[in-house]
């Protein structure tokens, strides 16, 4: 199946929703699931140049980016979107495929692997959630990064806003002010990346992503207990979710997982150090070849 570089392609999900995906690069396919939750895949860019080594097939989740809106909003729930990932795999005719997931996309990837273990050749969890397995990020975890960023020039103005995010009292201004905490370097590239978030995210869908019934951690853990595919859990040294020690806990839940902690990286490690990021992921993916 050939695709024009960077063009938007579509398929129809089982419930009739039109799903869009974007193909960048050449080589073995790497199915990429964005986070947010419910943020369009555009923010992934070319994953720090990973497209030079792999063909990135990036799915816009239903209701985001170039994908259509479902008739039933309940299908925004994470477990309901597993069928969309399977529809994309069937669309390409892959027997199995390498999967990379970022942030909240980690939950979707884990549920997909739990339901279709033979379809996932390798799983790369990048700064990823694992609520699907019963691992969550606490306010205390988030606050651990405060001491790590105290020397930053933006720290004094961002600290109170960051605290407000986790106390539940955050205003829109607080969200904007706290953004530097999510990046290893608050430079021009990070500012541009952060500015695009609002137009790329479906906030009403995000509210439904982890709604009641989305996760059954005991069932998911049982499903992956005998899964023998290689798993990479990559965490940023400066990221508040997951902190590296929490990522290490996620590693323990998979039979064949390894931890990589990228120095000086935040929640978007491919922006903070593209060379380090692509080297780590490429080396891992080679294990599944």
Uncertain residue ranges: none
- The helix count comes to 12
Whole-number mean pLDDT: 95
Shape: globular
Radius of gyration: 18 Å
Q: What would you give as the CATH superfamily?
A: Alpha/Beta hydrolase fold, catalytic domain
Total strands: the figure is 8
Say what the CATH topology is: Rossmann fold
* CATH architecture term: 3-Layer(aba) Sandwich
| Helix-strand string | EEEEHEHEHHHHHHHEHEHH
Describe the structure.
The chain has one domain: Alpha/Beta hydrolase fold, catalytic domain (Rossmann fold). The chain is 36% helix and 17% strand. The protein is built from 12 helices and 8 strands. It has helices at residues 82-92, 105-115, 139-148, 155-167, 172-178, 188-195, 197-200, 203-209, 217-224, 244-251, 269-272, 274-285, and strands spanning 8-12, 18-24, 29-33, 55-60, 97-102, 120-126, 231-236, 257-262. It has an 8-stranded mixed sheet, with helices on both faces. Strand 5 (97-102), helix 2 and strand 6 (120-126) form a beta-alpha-beta unit. It is globular, with a radius of gyration of 18 Å.
Question: Can you lay out the helices and strands and say which pair or pack?
Answer:
Layout: E1 8-12, E2 18-24, E3 29-33, E4 55-60, H1 82-92, E5 97-102, H2 105-115, E6 120-126, H3 139-148, H4 155-167, H5 172-178, H6 188-195, H7 197-200, H8 203-209, H9 217-224, E7 231-236, H10 244-251, E8 257-262, H11 269-272, H12 274-285
Helix pairs in contact: 1-2, 2-9, 3-4, 4-5
Brief summary:
The chain is of the alpha/beta class. Helices cover 36% and strands 17% of the residues.
